[in-house]
Amino acid sequence: MALETTSVGSFPKPAYLKKARTQFEKGEIGARELDELGRRSTAAWIRFQEEIGIDVLVDGEQYRGDMVAYFAENLEGTTISGLVRSYGNRYYKKPVVVDELARPEPITVAWWRFAQGLTDRPVKGMLTGPYTMMDWSFNEYYPSREDCALAFAKVVRQEARDLVAAGAKVVQIDEPALSTREDELPLVVKALGEVTRDLDAKTITHTCYGNYERIYPAMLDLPVDQIDLEMSNSGLDLLALFRKHPFTKELAFGVIDVHSHVVETKPQVEERIRGALEVVPPERLWVDPDCGLKTRTPEEARDKLRAMVAARNAVRERLQA
């Protein structure tokens, strides 16, 4: 169906879960109690997405902290350093690769099974991509950045295959570091290709807040079915580029600015969708927020998503008429 709606991945954590995560870090509660609260919050977000009519759901990443450290902590061959600035006032715990990378057991599959078991709608499997894992880590073991990226690709591929074996029909591999080094785009393509090769699922890569003028249209070589891009925070400036060089893949078009407390109006979002339809036909266009919504309050996130779905519905009705 045209104009499918989804979300990029993360949703805000409720106050009770934030408190529990702090208590867990202090040793005041155990992993079992923390996981139960994580499941409670996940179930609430699944219900909300169903209620407002989102097509492809996400689990909201209620069990995760940082997108890179979460995976690194569950791999062999890594340690975690102190906090490093990511952007603005956002920090993350930077992994250190100190030995051969290995994945002793599935990392996200149990949480995906739980979320998918709550709904008949598809729930995306969501992974951090190998290039970003490499670029956002200190490499003290592999002889080159390429060797490190391909080592990460091996373990991310194992996780992706296990998600598909569990029943996931859509797998998203996030690569926010995609545009960090223009000369390394071929490495991004190679490493991502190791993950998606022969994967029996719709594959998506999400990336955001980069200088894509430098790597477009070459980024269309990324071996995925769909590229998910931030568009609204940057004022839809990529539309001019897409008019010059057609966007040939499926496009998930960010219509919600996740770094603004202001909740978009339905007409604002409709206008953004209509702009997207000028460069991509409706059958290849998905509608979602710019990025994860975890930096917003739960109320802001819900209101923004409601506006997104209402605008999509209005545009879809006009298309069908």
Please write out the topology:
Elements: E1 4-5, H1 15-25, H2 31-52, H3 69-73, E2 76-87, E3 90-102, H4 109-116, E4 125-128, H5 130-135, E5 138-139, H6 145-166, E6 170-174, H7 185-196, E7 202-207, E8 226-229, H8 238-244, E9 250-256, H9 266-277, E10 285-289, H10 298-320
Parallel strand pairs: 1-10, 3-5, 4-6, 6-7, 7-8, 8-9, 9-10
Antiparallel strand pairs: 2-3
Helix pairs in contact: 1-2, 6-7, 9-10
Description:
Helix 1 (15-25) runs antiparallel to helix 2. The two termini are 15 Å apart. The longest helix has 23 residues, at 298-320. With 321 residues, this protein is of the alpha/beta class. It is globular, with a radius of gyration of 19 Å. A hairpin with a 2-residue loop joins strand 2 (76-87) and strand 3. The mean pLDDT is 94. It has a single domain (4-320), classed as TIM Barrel. It has helices spanning 15-25, 31-52, 69-73, 109-116, 130-135, 145-166, 185-196, 238-244, 266-277, 298-320, and strands at 4-5, 76-87, 90-102, 125-128, 138-139, 170-174, 202-207, 226-229, 250-256, 285-289. The chain has a seven-stranded parallel sheet. Strands 2-3-5 form a three-stranded mixed sheet. 44% of the residues are buried.
